[in-house]
Amino acid sequence: MLELQQLSKTYATGDTALRDVSFVVPRGQVMGLIGPSGAGKSTLIRCINRLVDPSGGRILLGDTDLAQVGRSELRRQRRRIGMIFQEYALVERLTVMENVLSGRLGYVPFWRSFTRRFPGQDIENAYRLLDRVGLLEQADKRADALSGGQRQRVGIARALAQEPALLLVDEPTASLDPKTSRQIMRLIIEICDERELPAIVNIHDVPLAQQFMHRLIGLRAGEVVFDGTPAALDEAVLGDIYGAEDWTAMRREHEEDQAAEADATRRVAEVAR
């Protein structure tokens, strides 16, 4: 379980990115962070894994306050936090298997990580994870030979190789087409259900978030302005989070994307006949 208590972040410039943010993410829940650019979504995730030091508040992962741990303990605690990135963050020249095994770097001695000689148990687990994300046959292929959706699946397997207590997911579908985006979100939800993993997903695609997230939190100017189920996220709330004009433009863009995808699917079907 993750619990934030009055988490705040003010930068040296005086700009406040987060204001007294408090919520709990129980085991197995996938929570989506939505809000306009500059709302504090990325800062929130970076505070949780301490890439950014918070100005105040508590970050409780189990019984540990991540906001208070020192450098050496922070390294150990970060092993418990799996990260899935928008731009995949793979080592392109390494194989799929080697990228997945990099999730174990925090657990093995330096000489093993330097020579990439991992314990047999880690290798067996990596194969199981690749099978789970549908990439077992791609294990020996270089990462730069994969499609975007395949790369994101490698990123998911790498995060799971850490055996994390929490998943932080930053814009996992921003670089993917709509169909692949749904596949990736479905995979993340299924894996969190299977492993009872709590997850926070920073996501810009509101309809996709409404379709897949267990719960949504809306941020605006660093403050929580909505915390509830996707079903409770109506037009009035979305207007409050994004501003009425911006939300109308976002909705129109999504509808145009859906229409374009449906047209492409129809054309493919016509060619196949």
Walkthrough of the structure:
With 273 residues, the protein is an alpha/beta fold. The chain has helices at residues 41-48, 71-78, 96-101, 110-115, 120-132, 148-161, 178-195, 206-212, 235-242, 244-272, and strands at 2-10, 16-25, 30-34, 56-61, 64-65, 81-84, 166-170, 199-202, 215-220, 223-228. The chain has 2 domains: 1-80 and 167-186 and 197-273, Rossmann fold (3-Layer(aba) Sandwich), CATH 3.40.50.300; 95-163, no CATH class. It is built from 10 helices and 10 strands. The chain has a 6-stranded mixed beta sheet with strand order 6-7-8-3-9-10, sandwiched between helices. A 4-stranded antiparallel beta sheet has the order 2-1-4-5, covered by helices on one side. α7 (178-195) links the parallel β7 and β8 (199-202). α5 crosses α6, α6 packs parallel to α7 and α9 packs across α10 (244-272). The longest helix is centred in the C-terminal third of the chain and has 29 residues, at 244-272. The chain is globular and about 45 Å long. It comes from Chromohalobacter beijerinckii. Residues 254-273 are annotated as: Disordered. It is found in: Cell inner membrane. InterPro entries: AAA+_ATPase (IPR003593), ABC_transporter-like_ATP-bd (IPR003439), ABC_transporter-like_CS (IPR017871), ABC_transpr_PhnC (IPR012693), MetN_ABC_transporter-like (IPR050086), P-loop_NTPase (IPR027417).
